[in-house]
Amino acid sequence: MKRFSELISAIEITNKTNAKIEALVQYFTHAADKDKLWLIALFTGKRPPRPVKSSLMKQWCAELTELPEWLFLESYSTVGDLGETIALLLPQPTHHIEKSLDAWMQELIQLKSKTESEKKAYVLNAWSGLNVQERLLFNKLIGGSFRIGVSKKTLVNALAKLTNMDANQLMHSIIGNWDINSITFDELLLGTHINYDNSKPYPFCLAYALEKELNQLGDVNDWQVEYKWDGIRGQIVKRNGELFIWSRGEELVTQQFPELVEVFETWQYNFVIDGEIIAIKDSSVLLFNDLQKRLNRKNISKKLLEEVPVGFYAYDILEFENKDIREKSLVERRKKLSLIFKQNTAKNIQLSETVAVTNWNALHEIRENSRSVNSEGLMLKQKHSPYHTGRKKGDWWKWKVDPLTIDAVMIYAQKGSGRRSSKYTDYTFAVKKDDGLVTVAKAYSGLTDAEITEISRWVNKNAIEKFGPVRTVKAELVFEIAFEGIALSNRHKSGVALRFPRIKRWRKDKTINDIDTIESVKDLIYANSNNNEL
Amino acid sequence: MIKFTKKGIYCIPGKFYLDPWLPVEYAIISHGHADHARWGMKHYLCHTHTKNILKHRISDDILVETLGYNEPKTINGVRVSFHPAGHIIGSAQIRLEHKGKVVVFTGDYKVKDDYITTPFESVKCHEFITESTFGLPIYKWLPEKVLQQQLHDWILQNKANNRTSVLFGYSLGKAQRIMKLVEGLDEILVHNAIYHSNNAIESSGIVLPKTTRLDGYFNKADVQNKIIIMPPGLLGSKMLTRVPNAATAICSGWMQVRGNRRWRGVDAGFAVSDHADWDGLLQAVKESEAEKVYVTHGSQATFTKYLNKIGIKAQEVITEYGDNELEAAEAKKEAIT
Predict the structure, then answer these.
(1) Which of A65, A82, B152, B280 has a Cα-to-Cα distance from A503 of 20 to 30 A?
(2) A174 is a domain residue
(3) Predicted confidence (pLDDT) per residue in A362-388, tens digit
(4) Chain A interface, best mutation among B161, B263, B270, B318, by max A CB count within 10 A
(5) Does A228 participate in catalysis according to the annotation?
(6) What's the domain range around A519?
(7) Crossing angle of helices A54-65/A69-79, nearest 10°?
(8) B265, B306, B325 ranked by CB distance to A457: nearest
């Protein structure tokens, strides 16, 4: 495990993607075949089921260290990671065990069916034979996320650098069905278990934010206008009876959206379609926050499938009946796309509607009202343009609505996870209601590291609680909160729900006397929306 | 005998303060760090080895009296003496005795020997005022030999990869500790702020590991593959970007936790601390045999609660020690000089 431990140390300490890739390349150059395969399995969600429950590990750690539970929890909330907390709390090792990653994994697979006392004996022996870093890794091998910022894409980029192979093909290879005991590292990379010809995606065409006046774009009739939907871009690849869904980050996400697969599989024609994966329920688009609940999950429960159903709005077509048609004009491609939708229908899969306009001026109002359909603005696409590779200026423009903003005061702060586990990075904000305050949003992005450090220091000094992960703080720091939409909601105590709230800036110039009231927040609803319920 | 006031810890019969944070008539100082030794006191009393540090940090014209370790002095009927705290050179626990009652104020301390600071000596007392910077059981320091090995391995690996090792630590205390840990491996270059701290320490007759002052306009070739020590304020500075192939590391107890190591964007983090770890705090409290423990800066809520649970009467005290803002301000000042 020494090499694996060195790899993780090298990866976790840096936030530079290139350094991570370099460390992975080093590992793939020197590690044993099976260890390499395990590394890929661990970072692509192909790990074996957890052999020991985390509650048992916690209990055994408490027994060994004789620490009271509250102190264990206090340590946990400082560290922010259970596996790491246990690794730090355990007594010094008494001996040293060195085994390959493969040996550890094989043993852990065996462990699954053992009795509780056998499991305990095994885990305790391992703990007493590993140093702090190795113990942490051992705990992570049992279960839990490594939280070191290695995505499938990072892994694939390292493999591509190692082999000079096509990254998308490697992505399909490692995501595809393979079994660690019946494949070699080389076979896996060469993709002997997959047919890449069937999954191969195209690079996405990306739009720039509109940077000129509308009338500078020329004749309005040369432009196709659509709503800009706030989901994740996806490419549906259907060839020779196989179906794949690629995300814009060039990850294969097919398994995450069973309801899309189920429908597309039955559709007529072979095609590659570009569109937006969105959460959609009873024919209206849900918040991106809702869609987020569906992303990056290994298993999707039936409950979640019902709660957040996923749909697809098709924008464009890149390949039709195995023929690349990206060079054809948008108008022609749109005809092909319409043909597919004429032959096939599904409630949750729709052709993205175009907005009919006869003059540029009319567009302003449509854009301003785009919030009323839970869209985040408009897309303008040159009708004669090809489907470009990557980001190209001139033919595709995005024209988003300006975010709404309010001033709110911070009332709770919570520590982040991973790199941010030492700082208070997640805040809850409130506005005035009668004589008191009411929570309106939780947000965590938008501040610089220096600001987060300053706020963390302030939280430490001004926290009302002394224990636990969440700190109630003096209502004093005021922030400008930006968000994409707002609606009445009876699920929230404040009576309103904000869409994609984030911190725009820290208003050091303002005090709690300057923040918004719940009435002034609600006024935004009537000014911006047609529907009152989310 | 003791009162916790807005200005600091006050000895009623002695009419003096211990490490006050506002200007007073007579201040007894545990050690030279900025959050314990502040400006504006009419009289300072500190350990012999702290005197020149105070003058260097505060001002040359302050009035400073000194005592060695275990050398008592009576002030208004209170017997005052200093005892090694093992925190940094010149650091002392302050023992006060009045009418048979003994109070000990630790300032900052560590119980393990670092081979450069006079090692901690436990002092029995009735009331023990302890710090609690690392008062959680996740903080357990590695033995000095192991830390030394880790640092050596890291530096040698850097050298092998044609990289310059840059270690970050406060100019007073941590820097000298690092110098001792890496002594003999290669030429050690120190930032100006550390160079001045070293001078202040050496002017009391202490011998430190040999170092070279890092000139602000250094030649890249002169520093390549060597060891550089800088104050943390220089992280992300222009000066750092001029170091060829720098491999950076922070030396601090906070580096024990992965999230902290990753937050700072350095290449490595070593949990090298001049404060007592969890076991060290417990050891010091137990060996003091105090009837009552007052817990100051750090994890005071947790440590106090734990002491009470194991049957040691303890109470939290709010002080202005361990103030990161002061350290940050100091670091900024160092970054400029």
Answers:
(1) A82
(2) no
(3) 999 999 888 888 888 999 999 999 999
(4) B263
(5) yes
(6) 404-528
(7) 120
(8) B325
